[in-house]
Design brief:
Layout: H1 2-7, H2 25-34, E1 37-41, E2 46-48, E3 56-71, E4 74-82, H3 90-94, E5 100-113, H4 114-121, H5 125-151, H6 154-171, E6 179-181, H7 186-193, H8 197-209, E7 214-216, E8 219-221, H9 225-231, H10 242-245
């Protein structure tokens, strides 16, 4: 693991514990070469604006980012990105997105020029499918958010979001055995869960009373992970961990 971190400092978390084990060393090196320009981003910075045309995409080396939409004078959170995510790979195909991307806390990112990405996938169908898979992961997570917003009451939605974030950070080595740290606030979680900050506070108090976790100043602590996941009806299959993908022989590089 330390060798991976040294060899691919900007991209070592990309699809970690998902499809990464099926990437060749040449593909990992190619991705690292393409993501050559690094930058630090201040908390709250809008890194990508809806409607603007972009000629590069960014991978999140370290930190958290939000996808947001503005409507009726309000900002709505429609996605959360964590370390290792190729945040706006969608813009490689779409060029302009329908939403903003902003830093949640201080972040480190690396840029890949679209011209370099195009050159990288020419004649390399497997590498192109790896990048495609990364964008489909975002879609799978988004669908789960929609489902849970319709299926669960607010306290269970909060439990599901905590369980999901914990699992996503686990995959890239950013979680703890008893929870995770983040720049998230109760207001962020309320927006994500489709409720008010006041009601979200009650929901978090309820989870704490049930022994399903405590959230305070960005730190989520839980010593009953199984109970949290059961209450939030969290099934990690849509996150596509490597146990599932390891059975898909056709994805093996030629």
């Amino acid at each position: 693991m330390a060798r991976e971190n040294q060899a691919y400092p900007a991209t070592q978390a990309f699809l970690k514990n998902r499809l990464r084990h099926l990437m060749t060393s040449e593909e990992k090196s190619l991705l690292e070469e393409v993501c050559a320009v690094e930058e630090s981003v201040a908390s709250g910075a809008v890194v990508l604006e809806a409607g603007r045309v972009y000629d590069k995409s960014m991978i999140l080396i370290e930190g958290f980012m939000l996808r947001t939409l503005e409507a009726d004078g309000r900002k709505h959170i429609v996605g959360l990105q964590v370390s290792g995510d190729f945040v706006d790979l969608h813009s490689f195909a779409l060029k302009r997105l329908d939403h903003n991307i902003e830093a949640l806390g201080a972040c480190r990112i690396a840029y890949a020029q679209h011209a370099d990405l195009k050159k990288a996938i020419e004649g390399n169908a497997h590498f192109a499918r790896v990048l495609w898979f990364a964008t489909l992961l975002d879609a799978a997570i988004h669908r789960e958010w929609i489902l849970k917003s319709k299926q669960l009451r607010a306290d269970a939605r909060a439990a599901h979001f905590m369980a999901e974030t914990w699992a996503r950070l686990d995959l890239v080595g950013g979680a703890k055995k008893d929870g995770f740290n983040s720049p998230l606030t109760q207001s962020h979680i309320a927006e994500i869960c489709g409720t008010t900050p006041v009601h979200l506070s009650r929901c978090l108090s309820s989870l704490n009373a049930m022994g399903l976790g405590e959230f305070r100043r960005g730190r989520f602590y839980c010593d009953n992970r199984a109970g949290l996941e059961a209450f939030g009806k969290f099934d990690p299959a849509y996150l596509y961990g490597d146990e599932t993908l390891g059975m898909v022989d056709e994805l093996q590089p030629e």
